[in-house]
Amino acid sequence: MLPSSLLHLRCPDVTATSVYGTGRRKSSTARVFLKSGSGEIELRGAPLEKRFPSAAIRTRIREPLEVAEVSDKVDVLATARGGGITGQADALRLGIARALVEFDPELRPLLKKAGLLTRDARIKERKKYGLAGARKRFQFSKR
Q1: pTM score of the predicted model
Q2: Could you tell me which of 52, 32, 142, 36 has the C-alpha nearest to residue 93?
């Protein structure tokens, strides 16, 4: 059992009226809970501005809410783990879009057309033995 001080980091405070969506990108995973509210976005208990200082990345995360025109009608509570800033941001974006579809199934065609429900399948290619990286060869010496 987790101590109560760590419990809020594992699972955000959600009620029965909330909906859930999962997003993944590269090696990042985001768990998103959506509920009716005033438009606040919290990531692990902190506002979005604190976790993602870049305005461009915050805009990318908010895109599903803007497309669905519900940015001031729902609150987002989320956790993101693994990967880096871009991977987590794109995982959050997909999780929010999927949660919006759970929230209102009529938004599906709108979000699908905007490309927000498509999981970006590009991941890091593994390093192969006998090579310096995934595809890079070791330096060739003629003599």
Answers
A1: 0.84
A2: 32
pLDDT digit string, tens, across residues 132-141: 999 999 999 9
Q: Give the CATH number of domain 7-113; options: 3.40.640.10, 3.30.230.10, 3.40.50.10320, 3.10.25.10.
A: 3.30.230.10
Output the six-digit token pair for 44. 């692990």
71 class by beta-carbon count within 10 Å (0-12 exposed, 13-18 middle, 19+ buried): middle
Q: Tell me the C-alpha distance between 121 and 123, whole Å.
A: 6
The Cα–Cα gap between 73 and 63 comes to 14
- pLDDT for residue 86: 95
pLDDT of residue 2: 41
Per the DSSP assignment, residues forming a β-bridge with 78 are 32, 43
